């Protein structure tokens, strides 16, 4: 058996490279054996060679399987490596996001601190403002109170001045109402009524601003006057009450209020109480 024959026999089962390798190895061996061994021994050797070839084939199959397994392992390792890379990227992104969040939290904390400082400043400013406002309010109230006192004093002065002026000019002011009128003194009033009224009524009557005697509508009459710059309901009621005291003493008496200002409502009220009204130089009609 020559080397080429061995190669041809083994090539179909082992492949070209393996058959060529074994042929180069076994060829010389067969030549030596052909000279030294029997056919039986040769057959035994040939069987051994076949077993070796089959073992070689199984080995190559296993090697191929191992190679394939190695490839799969490398693919898995590559996939794991890629997954690891992605995980590392995600971790880096999460770390960066955490850093940003910590920076934002620090900024928010700082902003909160500034806000609290500003609120404290505003609260302090508000307190100062409230204190100033309270002080200003106190000053204004004081001024208002002082102004009210001054107004009351001024009203009193004006009222007293107007009363004196009216008393001095009573006969001319009441010329359309009363003929031959004259202002009565307190002693004259008391002489005319003290026998018919009690002391309280006499005191009330003497508090009238003015009492005049004259002729009204052809009758000897008395006019009881309440003088006020601005007419009030109390002026109307006092004039009516004091004229009633004179009538109780048997005298004809007319109540009258003299003023510079009277509202339409009080004018109507005076007319309903039969109280005459002299306003700002003019006698107003007794009836609406």
- Major sheet description: 6 strands, mixed
Number of helices: 8
Strand order of the largest sheet: 1-2-3-4-5-6
**Could you give the distance between the termini?**
166 Å
Classify the beta-strand content into a percent band.
Answer: 5-15%
Low-confidence parts: none
Helix content: over 70%
E-strand count: 6
Structural domains: how many: 2
Mean pLDDT: 82
- Structural class of the secondary structure composition? alpha/beta
Gross morphology: rod-shaped
Order of helices and strands: HHHHEHHEEHEHEE
3D structure, described in words:
The protein has 288 residues and is α/β, with parallel strands linked by helices. It has 2 domains: 37-155; 169-284, no CATH class. 72% of the residues lie in helices and 12% in strands. The chain contains 8 helices and 6 strands; from the N terminus they run H-H-H-H-E-H-H-E-E-H-E-H-E-E. The chain has helices at residues 3-14, 16-36, 39-168, 170-173, 186-193, 199-206, 233-248, 264-272; strands at 179-183, 210-216, 219-227, 253-259, 276-279, 282-284. Strands 1-2-3-4-5-6 form a 6-stranded mixed sheet. Helix 7 links the parallel strand 3 (219-227) and strand 4. Helix 1 (3-14) crosses helix 2 (16-36) and helix 6 packs across helix 7.
Fold topology:
Layout: H1 3-14, H2 16-36, H3 39-168, H4 170-173, E1 179-183, H5 186-193, H6 199-206, E2 210-216, E3 219-227, H7 233-248, E4 253-259, H8 264-272, E5 276-279, E6 282-284
Helix pairs in contact: 1-2, 6-7
Write a concise synopsis of the structure shown:
The protein has 288 residues and is of the alpha/beta class.
């Amino acid at each position: 058996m020559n080397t080429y024959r061995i190669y041809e026999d083994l090539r179909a089962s082992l492949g070209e490279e393996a058959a060529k390798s074994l042929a180069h190895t076994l060829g010389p061996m067969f030549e030596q054996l052909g000279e030294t061994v029997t056919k039986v021994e040769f057959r035994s050797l040939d069987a051994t060679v076949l077993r070796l070839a089959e073992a070689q084939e199984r080995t190559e199959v296993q090697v191929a399987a191992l190679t394939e397994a190695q490839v799969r392992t490398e693919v898995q390792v590559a996939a794991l490596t890629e997954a690891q890379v992605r995980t590392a990227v995600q971790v880096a992104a999460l770390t960066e996001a955490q850093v940003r969040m910590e920076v934002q939290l620090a900024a928010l904390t700082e902003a909160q601190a500034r806000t609290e400082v500003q609120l404290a400043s505003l609260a302090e400013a508000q307190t100062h403002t409230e204190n100033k406002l309270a002080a200003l309010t106190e000053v204004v109230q004081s001024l208002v109170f002082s102004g009210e006192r001054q107004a009351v004093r001024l009203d009193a002065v004006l009222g007293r001045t107007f009363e004196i002026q009216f008393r001095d000019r009573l006969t001319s002011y009441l010329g359309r109402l009363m003929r031959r009128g004259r202002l009565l003194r307190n002693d004259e009033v008391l002489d005319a009524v003290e026998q018919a009224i009690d002391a309280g009524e006499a005191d009330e009557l003497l508090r009238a601003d003015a009492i005049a005697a004259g002729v009204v509508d052809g009758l000897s009459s008395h006019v009881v006057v309440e003088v006020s710059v601005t007419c009030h309901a109390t002026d109307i009621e006092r004039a009516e009450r004091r004229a009633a005291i004179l009538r109780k003493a048997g005298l004809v008496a007319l109540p009258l209020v003299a003023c510079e200002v009277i509202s339409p409502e009080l004018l109507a009220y005076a007319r309903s109480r039969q109280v005459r009204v002299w306003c700002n130089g003019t006698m107003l009609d007794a009836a609406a």
